[in-house]
């Protein structure tokens, strides 16, 4: 049986399970809006948004950042929603990844999994999904003076059909959110 994305404890909802107000990343004025494309348009549509935070305090206040101390943990919240006549017929899984391209002179490119791994679709739900990336301190390598990275969250729909060699076959739904350049640095004041 498929399960929906966990909602934050005490998060206000619209009665159907979709968070409302500042807990809804899709409608958060600070969130970066992305794009979902599907071969089933206009019978299946989607929208996606994501936000980068440097601390739990910022998550609560919903203020994103563009400069991050690499010595500290940081987070990316992602939410997306499917709508349309056929959303209740779509079964499978979501793969959600964060791609980080180093555009400075030092450091490596990164490809990170979200905190939940593959996420089951819930064809009987409201079509709203969310996840978080919790990136530990010092995961991003930075040089002297800091290193800029280009970050993109990508989502891919995977059918329940297995592929030869393992994994699931990608289906006709994909999306992304592209962030502005994020500058990572190591604060020298901390021990």
Structure description:
The chain has 191 residues and is mostly beta strands. The chain has one domain (21-185): Distorted Sandwich (Coagulation Factor XIII, Chain A, domain 1), CATH 2.70.50. The chain is 3% helix and 43% strand. Strand 6 (93-102) and strand 7 (110-113) form a beta hairpin. The longest helix has 6 residues, at 56-61. It is elongated, with a radius of gyration of 17 Å.
Key traits:
191 residues; mainly beta; Coagulation Factor XIII, Chain A, domain 1; 8-stranded mixed β-sheet; 4-stranded antiparallel β-sheet; 12 strands; elongated; disordered N terminus
Helical stretch tally? 1
Mean pLDDT: 85
- Any idea of the CATH class? Mainly Beta
Fold-level CATH name: Coagulation Factor XIII, Chain A, domain 1
Could you write a compact summary of the structure shown?
The chain is mainly beta. The chain is 3% helix and 43% strand.
Question: How is the topology of this model organized?
Answer:
Blueprint: E1 32-33, E2 35-38, E3 45-53, H1 56-61, E4 67-69, E5 74-83, E6 93-102, E7 110-113, E8 119-120, E9 128-135, E10 147-162, E11 168-178, E12 182-185
């Amino acid at each position: 049986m498929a399960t929906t994305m966990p909602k934050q404890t005490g998060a206000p909802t619209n009665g159907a399970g979709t968070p409302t107000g500042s807990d809804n990343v899709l409608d958060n004025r600070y969130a970066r809006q992305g794009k979902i494309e599907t071969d089933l348009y206009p019978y299946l549509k989607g929208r996606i948004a994501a936000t980068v935070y440097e601390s739990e305090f910022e998550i609560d206040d919903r203020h994103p950042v563009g400069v991050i101390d690499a010595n500290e943990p940081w987070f990316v919240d992602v939410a997306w929603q499917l709508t349309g006549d056929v959303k209740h017929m779509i079964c499978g899984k979501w793969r959600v990844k964060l791609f980080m391209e180093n555009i400075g002179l030092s450091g490596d490119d990164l490809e990170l999994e979200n905190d939940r791994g593959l996420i089951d679709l819930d064809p009987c739900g409201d079509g709203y999904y969310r996840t978080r990336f919790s990136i530990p301190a010092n995961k991003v390598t930075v040089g002297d003076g800091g290193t800029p990275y280009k970050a993109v969250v990508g989502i891919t729909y995977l059918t329940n059909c297995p592929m030869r060699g393992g994994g699931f076959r990608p289906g006709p739904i994909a999306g992304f959110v592209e962030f502005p350049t994020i500058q990572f640095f190591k604060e020298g004041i901390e021990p």
